[in-house]
Amino acid sequence: MIGNRAVFIIFGSFFSLISGFLILAAIMVKSAPNSETYALLSLAVMSFSLSYLYPQFIQKDERTRMIREKAMFFSSFSFLFYAFVVTSALRFNLIHLSAIEAINILISLMISTIFISMVVLARKY
Fold first, then answer.
1. 3-class DSSP state for residue 85?
2. How far apart are CA 8 and CA 17, in angstroms?
3. What distance in Å separates the CA atoms of residue 20 and residue 40, rounded to the nearest whole number?
4. CA distance 22 to 63
5. pTM over the 0.85 mark
């Protein structure tokens, strides 16, 4: 059981290092980070969250099912909010993104929201 948590921590550290390197490179050339950097950051969040949740989610009981259901419920409303904000910002020309960048940002926000809400709900229940 400890070995599986260590694997998640190793993956999270790996994704954090890569995304940190990409952010540092973007800062050095004075530009915005590549949109795939956000996906790597969300994978790091997912890995660290799974390392915390693994001992609890290995048991298939009512509590873990309820945590997953509530996390998906909260993240569905947050996705609607994220999509509204990105669409409004694009419509009023507040930000200038290509379609693939907007999709990468939305996917990264969703991955992070789901797993952070699972951690918060696991601590609450």
1. helix
2. 14
3. 9
4. 38
5. yes
Close Cβ partners of 105 (under 8 Å, ≥ 6 residues apart): 35, 38, 86, 97
The tens digit of pLDDT for each residue in 64-85 reads: 999 999 999 999 999 999 999 9
53: helix, strand or coil? helix
Q: Which distant-in-sequence residues (6+ apart) come within 8 Å of 3 by Cβ?
A: none
Q: How would DSSP label each residue in 54-85? A: HHHHTS-SHHHHHHHHHHHHHHHHHHHHHHHH
Q: What share of the chain is helix, strand, coil (3-state, %, to 5)?
A: 85, 0, 15
- Measured between alpha carbons, how far is 44 from 110 in angstroms, rounded to an integer? 13
